[in-house]
Write a structure and sequence with these properties.
By secondary structure, the protein is of the alpha/beta class. It contains 11 helices and 5 strands; from the N terminus they run ααββαβαβαβαααααα. Helix 2 (65-83) packs across helix 8, helix 2 runs parallel beside helix 9 (263-275) and helix 6 runs antiparallel to helix 8 (239-253). Bound molecules: zinc ion.
Length: 318
């Protein structure tokens, strides 16, 4: 009985050990599988992976003929805003600037605000024209997004500015010079690489990024390429760039509209340019920037006054 009891005890122990080993192995396999599923970078690629994405790419930019002419006028205005405070030593910042437009307003009330690159005077490399323009707009308008607005910038936006445009739901960005090195960011964000190993969905909230259809852009691109593509910001401080920006400012000054309805637009653009200061302006500023609620509600409405009082209280007491 003793030897039989020992034998039974041995069998029971071995069974228990085998069961324990099986449990441990099963747990490891489960944990391993679970970690694969919980790690998006190792998710299987292929057609099935497409079901993970709901990010529609931006619709193609397809303006009417009259809107295309307005694009031209606003692009010329962006060059002229930069030319008005031309930098030869980049003390304020680089010769890059932008204007913000609300295409949902009446044609002569679409201009919202302007800004110029100010990385020099602020000693802050984030102070690109587009960042300053959107920051200032959000501040003076008291809103959190730029949904539906269009931005015209003289140089193709970088990753920082493109990211900001995406996060504030800007509709369209139109640029007046190609940046061969830091450009095509919106296109890179829109890239669907799910079918590649460790690929990704397109980034959400795609923004239309479009090269301005103006002769000055082609001349800038050609002249920059002919110079051997040096650093683009140092090239923009040179005489070749200055001459072309001067041509753009002159073209706006003498612009003859193709469509009569755009006469008010070009008149407004010239009046706007006259109000833009010719020197650095610290944030936030309202000079030459329309307050959107004034455009929508009229200057003496109850909403206008209450918004102004609210902003004044916030600035004084907080
Ligand atoms: Zn930028």
């Amino acid at each position: 009985m003793t030897s039989a009891g020992s034998y039974n005890s041995l069998v029971a122990t071995r069974f228990a050990c085998a069961t324990l080993a099986l449990i441990v192995m099963t747990t490891k396999v489960y944990a391993s599988e679970n970690s694969v599923h919980s790690h998006p970078q190792t998710a299987p690629a292929g057609p099935m992976a497409n079901t993970r994405c709901n990010n529609a790419p931006p619709t193609p930019y397809n303006p009417s003929s009259t809107e295309l002419e307005r694009d031209k006028i606003y692009s010329l205005l962006a060059y002229a805003v930069v030319y008005k405070d031309w930098q030869t030593d980049n003390r304020r910042g680089f010769n890059i600037g932008s204007v913000l437009v609300d295409p949902n307003q009446a044609p002569d009330h679409q201009l919202v605000c302007w800004a110029r690159n100010s990385v020099g005077v602020t000693k802050n490399a984030t102070q690109h024209g587009e960042v300053r323009l959107l920051t200032n707009y959000l501040e003076i308008a008291g809103v959190r997004s730029a949904k539906g607005l269009k931005l015209y910038t003289t140089l193709e936006p970088c990753a920082m500015c493109s990211g900001m445009m995406t996060l504030v739901s800007l509709r369209t960005s139109i640029y007046g010079q190609t940046d061969p090195r830091f450009g095509k960011v919106m296109e890179r964000l829109a890239l669907d690489s799910q079918n590649l190993p460790e690929g990704h969905c397109p980034y959400p909230r795609g923004v239309q990024s479009v090269a301005a259809q103006v002769a000055i852009r082609e001349r800038l691109d050609t002249a920059y390429a002919a110079a051997g593509k040096p650093g683009i910001t140092s090239w923009l401080a040179g005489e070749a760039a200055r001459t072309l920006f001067e041509q753009a400012a002159s073209e706006l000054a003498g612009y003859q509209v193709q469509f009569a309805e755009n006469q008010r637009v070009v008149d407004r653009a010239r009046a706007f340019l006259a109000k833009v200061p010719s020197k650095y302006t610290s944030l936030p500023y309202t000079r030459a920037c329309e307050e959107p609620w004034v455009q929508q509600e009229g200057p003496f409405s109850l909403k206008t006054m209450s918004e102004r009082v609210k902003r004044w209280v916030e600035r004084v007491f907080y």
